Amino acid sequence: MNIRRAKKEDIPQIEELLYQVHKVHSDGRPDLFKAGEKKYTTEELETLVKNDEKPIFVAEDDIILGYAFCVFQYHGNSMYNKTTLYIDDLCVSEKSRGHKVGTKLYEFVLDFAKKSNCYNVTLNVFARSSAEGASRAEVLREDRTESAENRHGKNSVKIME
Asked: How far is CA 118 from CA 23, 107, 113, in A?
């Protein structure tokens, strides 16, 4: 398995995975998500794959097995400047689950963040219930705080001292 930046040629396979992710959301919360949709249009993906501020990484083994959509976020004031790499979306193909693809993508993103001098990496976990969110967040093996207001788990991993 190889992990690399996404290219324009990857978009059709990325779109298939975006539909898989959206189906999980629309099945779980049909009051919030329309069935049969995806997060980005083809045109938006064409722009995103070229954007260094929003890198997309893909795990591949002849086909795309999963992806990680990331966003650099800059925080600071006159006393400090910190950069966060936010994982906006992480998906492993239904057919590739159980083979550590997600773990390898996550570790790749952590390494990329370190090389990019990021202070931390964050990931929000959408959950239909608090228990489900907690279960999914355990993969991070780090401190987890949950927001009861919006039922999302927010995870932040400090990577720089």
From this structure: 32, 14, 5
The tokens for 129 are 């219930």
End-to-end CA distance of the chain: 31
Sequence-distant (≥ 6) Cβ neighbours of residue 140 within 8 angstroms:
106, 123, 155, 157
For 87, the token pair is 């994982």
Give 25's pLDDT tier (boundaries 50, 70, 90).
confident
Q: Report the C-alpha gap between 37 and 108 in whole angstroms.
A: 28
Reading the block at residue 73, the tokens are 């976020």
> Which value, to the nearest 10 degrees, does the dihedral of the CA atoms of residues 112, 41, 12, 36 take?
110
**Quick one: CA torsion of 110, 112, 118, 121, rounded to 10 degrees?**
-30
| pTM of this structure | 0.79
Single-letter amino acid, residue 146? E
60 — alpha (psi -120 to 50), left (phi > 0) or beta? beta
pLDDT digits (tens, 9 = 90+) for 74-131: 998 888 899 999 999 999 999 999 999 999 999 999 999 999 999 999 998 766 544 4
pLDDT of amino acid 127: 66
